[in-house]
Fold Homoserine O-succinyltransferase.
Amino acid sequence: MPIRIPDDLPASSILKSENIFTMSESRASHQNIRPLRVLILNLMPKKIETETQLMRLLSNTPLQVDIELLRVDARASRNTPQKHLDKFYGDFERIKEKKWDGFIITGAPLGTIPFEDVYYWEKFTEIVEWSKHNVTSTLFLCWSAQAALKIFYDLEKVTRDDKLSGIFAHQTHHHQHPLVRGFDDEFWAPLSRYAEFNSDEIKKHTDLAVFADAPEAGVYLAASPDCKQVYITGHPEYDAHTLNSEYIRDLEEDLEPILPVNYYPNDDKNEKPRATWRSHGNLLYSNWLNYCVYQVTPYDLSV
């Protein structure tokens, strides 16, 4: 089944060229199906790229999904045309009276900035608190996972001296749980963060189940007992070139980045990187959408 997105959203033509089943709003309006309603709060600078990556993963299930894009405020973006934002992104005030099946909050390039110095921290906190009562399951990615841990559990922000960047091998735990159903014992996933997610601290100070972690990288996947909040500390949605683009950006900004590990063939930045995490990313999003959203969300969201 397809995801339903606006007819002229840039992601639509990209996904169609990849033979991914998308459905225009005009066609979907004639189907008598109750699709899942998924909201995406996109905090990433290159919003078109990020929304395409997420929709690619959300399309890989038998479920029909309606996508709505949300922004945290109306400030201009240096990396996304204002016309695109005004046309496809809504404000929180417009959607907060509705109920949602699923909610994805992306990461943000704010790893070294204290939460209280993030200009939209107050609004972000309001949205996260709102999600507890108005969303069946929320998926927090990377920076937003760290921020949500602060909001829900008062876990202090711990920042690494150097950026954790590359493709890391993670171990799967609790194989019987639906969220990791079908996972290999070990899988690869992209990380790009300054945030520290210590397994022992999270197990000690929260009620979260840790489903995947790595010795050098800490927790990768965790969830509340009812899976209403799911935390991914990496980026399974990334394309093969995304870490390369971030590495070049950091070089240009004189941040002296470390070469992403396990990423470039032979650790040669002139070699073309290959994606080794697509199957994991698709399975993770399919499991979340099926078991944490579809299987438990009410048919009538207003109830």
